[in-house]
Design brief:
Number of helices: 17
Strand order of the largest sheet: 4-3-2-5-1-6-7-8
Distance between the termini: 26 Å
Largest sheet: 8 strands, mixed
Helix content: 40-55%
Radius of gyration: 23 Å
């Protein structure tokens, strides 16, 4: 099955299984970069408030069912299989020819209905207007992460076209929360659509780093200064967490007004200010999101930095994090030095040359690797490692000899083979200057997922 755009199949499929999406409230999260982190922040905060929360993110990480979470835990395989069977039978019986994503989305909604969740946080799959998730009538908020260039074949070649498609999740009179945007035109389009739909619109200001507490941030919550823990790495998480905190504020206001448990017994946030604040902080402290600026230590690879950076905006964010890592002095404590050793794999069709230009310096070395075929995503293909190497050779062939180029840029059949070569690289650097190269694995979340599978890591 390939990607199919349009709502007709989803609407019909959901009708056949009883319209489960009508049985819970949703928070709809769109944008380009940061949707997953924002969803995770929101889910963890609301989960700490004693609400039964469902969360649906895409793509899935390793197995299809890990994209569906209840109480911030992956849905049980038994529950998933039962819901999936109902969805697949309905699709086959009526020859709807739904796409894999449409089937998975319907399965997620049926799981949430079966589990009787209070609120589901639903991440848009592709775009927004015609995305299979854009079928839920009872929305508490339409949330937008940073919008940039991605999926041009489906959404358009300009930021304005892409933002217009993504703005399609905005609903009448439903609050709109907008992250800080790199492109002013994207912000203007979202604000215009919010106005057209008579929806309250909140332009979020980024949080500030706490001046004395490492990995803490400051913003406002219900109009008051609010300090909170920020366990996810990267300066962009100041934006993502700020959006999530504002979203939770907007949602709690509605739950209080609608007298929904556990907020049915209070008349305003001020009645339980301290209790709610502590629950929100607890939720934020427990947030986890694999493969986003994640430090991994394992006997098969040593200490490496994992990141799913797969487009230019993500690449710039990763580069900024690495630059700050070296400038801060933390790299010295970890005995890391430049040049960097990259382990790189990318989905076919992405802007390979541009991402490599952003990340890789002439002195760096790159191990070019594939990733295994993602489960039930037959349209996803990795860029052949030889193509990645050829891109690097073309760029640097005038700066190095052929021997040097072949030493710097190597291809491997899998990521574990690349890991096996790290020992020699580290030993050579240690003998040379008493440091190790910083090893960064990036280019695709599918590559990160491959590593989790290969090393048998828990999600």
């Amino acid at each position: 099955m390939s990607i199919k755009i349009g709502l007709e199949r989803s609407i019909e499929l959901l009708k056949l299984i009883g319209n489960p999406q009508n049985n819970f409230k949703i928070i709809h999260v769109g944008g380009t970069n940061g949707k997953g982190s924002i969803s995770s922040f929101i889910g963890s905060m609301l989960n700490s408030c004693s609400l039964k929360i469902g969360r649906y993110n895409s793509p899935h990480f390793i197995h299809e069912y890990d994209s569906i979470r209840i109480f911030e835990k992956t849905v049980s395989k038994q529950r998933y299989d039962k819901a999936r069977e109902i969805v697949v039978k309905a699709n086959a019986a009526h020859n709807l020819k739904a796409s894999q994503f449409e089937l998975l989305t319907a399965t997620a909604f049926l799981c949430f209905s079966m589990e009787k969740v209070d609120v589901a946080i639903v991440e848009v799959g592709l775009g927004g207007r015609l995305d299979a998730t854009n079928v839920c009538p009872d929305s508490l908020a339409s949330v937008f992460s940073s919008i940039g260039i991605d999926h041009q074949a489906f959404l358009g070649n300009t930021v304005e076209e892409i933002a217009s498609e993504k703005s399609g999740i905005i609903k009448d009179n439903v609050p709109v929360i907008i992250a800080p945007q790199s492109y002013n035109s994207a912000k203007e389009i979202l604000c215009h659509q919010a106005k057209e739909h008579h929806s309250p619109c909140y332009l979020v200001s980024t949080s500030r780093k706490h001046p004395t507490k490492p990995n803490w941030a400051i913003n406002t919550f219900f109009g008051q200064d609010f300090e909170y823990p920020l366990p996810l790495q990267g300066g962009f998480q100041l934006d993502n967490s700020a959006v999530a905190v504002k979203t939770v504020e907007v949602v709690i206001k509605q739950l209080i007004e609608q007298k929904i448990k556990p907020f049915s017994s209070i008349s305003s946030y001020q009645d339980n200010l301290q209790v709610i604040n502590e629950k929100i902080r607890k939720g934020l402290s427990e947030v986890k999101w694999p493969g986003r600026l994640e430090w991994l230590v394992h006997n098969k690879c040593g200490k490496v930095l994992l990141d799913g950076a797969h487009n230019t905006d993500c690449a710039y964010a990763l580069k900024k994090y690495i630059d700050e890592y070296f400038e801060s002095g933390i790299s010295t404590q970890n005995h890391h030095s430049r040049p960097i050793q990259w382990i790189f794999g990318m989905t076919h069709g992405k802007d390979l040359e541009k991402v490599l230009d952003i990340l890789v310096s002439p002195e760096d070395s790159v191990y070019c690797v594939p990733f295994r075929q993602p489960e039930q995503m037959t349209w996803i293909h990795c860029t052949p490692p030889k193509d990645i190497k050829e891109t690097l050779l073309q760029k640097y062939q005038s700066q190095f000899t052929e021997t040097e180029l072949n030493e710097k840029y190597k291809t491997f059949d899998n990521v574990l083979d690349a890991f096996a070569c790290l020992k020699d690289i580290r030993e050579k650097r240690m003998k040379k200057n008493g440091t190790e190269p910083l090893v960064v694995v990036c280019g695709s979340l599918y590559l990160v997922a491959d590593i989790y599978q290969s090393l048998l890591l828990a999600v």
